[in-house]
Amino acid sequence: MDILGDHAGSIPARVLSQTTKELESTMKPVYFEKHNKVYAKNQLPYIPLPVYEDAEQGGRVFHCWSLSFFEKIHVLFTGKVWVNVCNFNQPLQPLKLMTSDPFDKEPLSLPVYGKKLSKDDRQFLILIAIYFIGLFMGFMLQYT
């Protein structure tokens, strides 16, 4: 299935190449257990987008993205995520960004003791600890 449909020919090559370069250094789509379709499969310059389509709930589509280590740091300090949607001059469709798994029945919580963290999560937590230790030391040095 062509994800852009009739609009593919209207996108300048420079925009497509710029988009491809941006994708090399930004967040990536995640293949998740419940995905039931992949958009743009084998369609260069696009990257495959695994999704879960739910026709029973009004055609809702879920997809998941993984942030790089530096993107996690950026979001931590800015608290912002920007969304870029190509709507081809058509009305914008409703969007909802989430931080928790929509298929998870348990509420979002901190990792449980004994649960194994990913390498990215460990690096992220170490960086946060170093940041707060630095803040504390700077505060202490200021008053000594």
Give structural notes.
The protein has 2 domains: 5-105, no CATH class; 110-144. The strands form 2 sheets. It has a 3-stranded antiparallel β-sheet, with no helix packed on it. A two-stranded antiparallel ribbon has the order 1-5. Residues 1-8 have low confidence and may be disordered. The protein is elongated, with a radius of gyration of 20 Å. It is of the alpha+beta class. It contains 3 helices and 5 strands; from the N terminus they run H-E-E-E-E-E-H-H. The longest helix is centred in the C-terminal third of the chain and has 24 residues, at 119-142.
Describe the SSE topology.
Layout: H1 13-24, E1 28-30, E2 37-39, E3 49-54, E4 60-62, E5 64-66, H2 69-78, H3 119-142
Antiparallel strand pairs: 1-5, 2-3, 3-4
Task: Provide a short characterization of the protein structure.
This protein is α+β, with helices and mostly antiparallel strands.
